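Step 1: inspect the first sequence and its tokens.
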Amino acid sequence: MKRILLALIALSWIATSLAQSTNDEPYNPEAPESTIKIPDREIYVNGTDEPSRMSWDVAKSVCACKGDGWRLPTIGELQTIYQYRDMFGNFSREYYWALELNKKSGRYYNLKFTNGKIADEESDERNKVRCVWVPTK
């Protein structure tokens, strides 16, 4: 009976570890729940959007308030997330904020998840937000 119980505990632990690991990448026990790892990068994407569209300043604050390592994705990270959007799922067909400022226009970058188009807008415009988490080294 004791062996059966130990075997069930071991199988449960293995199944949990496999379920939390994506793309044959090692499981990171520090990664927040409901995040998905971007393949070949040490960055995790929140499994869901924030509940409403928001300005860039509010979006940046919302991500930072989640804790250490949370932030808006860079435009390059958004492009990678767009490439793997089917893996992450549940993206709206709208623009999502990026972290960077377009220095030429003085507006913040965003990316549309219907076609991957990069644009920029004033910070008070309202766009969708999907925060990312990067482990602190």
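Step 2: inspect the second sequence and its tokens, then contrast the two.
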Amino acid sequence: MSPAGSVFAVGREGSPPKRQNILRKHAMCSRYSLTSPPQAVRQTFGVFNKEEFPPRYNIAPTQPVLIVRNSLRHERELVLVRWGLIPSWVKDPNDFATLINARAETATVKPSFRAAMRHRRCLVPANGFYEWTGPKGAKQPHLVRPRDGGVMAMAGIFEHWLGADGSEIETMAILTVAANETMRPIHDRMPAILPPEAFELWLDCQSGSSVPVEGLLTPAPNDLLEVMPVSKAINNPRNEGSGVLEKSAGDRG
């Protein structure tokens, strides 16, 4: 789903730098998980298509990810896109850093995000996301997840890029807001998490305006999430499986 041979810098939440040779680590939000069974995800989001997918414990930028969006028939569908937004006006994705997040406070006016905020909103299913604390070289990863378990919906936007040679890429970014009291000790930002009663309004882009949904982008309730330390194996995006959630003896102290 990505241009052949490309290595992208991970843009945080604004205008991106030119292409770089390494990924900028641990931007907010730069890793998450989706481990619920497909049936549970379909039921939570009310999608009509029966997309099958394996559990993923270490989802990283530029990887294929599942989003929920309205189809052309205005029915909810699960589709795979690449994590890292590329606006439709970009000439060459190789010279554009992937934008993994968009600040909710400015997304409606930033050139990279404003069209998607009006016309291409989506939900990003997740069972949790990761954040890091501590000094450089000894950072401790944490999983932030719903206290009652299950899948949650992060607010997202997506884009459809079409190249002059006919190549196509669909990409997405996650909206972020100020941290709530639970998150504040480890980061000053967090993903915008939407409750089920907000799904319909967020996904409905027929008005071509972002004004009706701007009030949805607020910090999650303080009692919604819990934070738990996990293995430093999560630092490597090639590591996958439930073992990345286990804080090993080698990680302690």
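Step 3: confirm your contrast with the notes below.
Residues 99 and 237 are 18 Å apart (CA to CA). The chain has one domain: 10-246.
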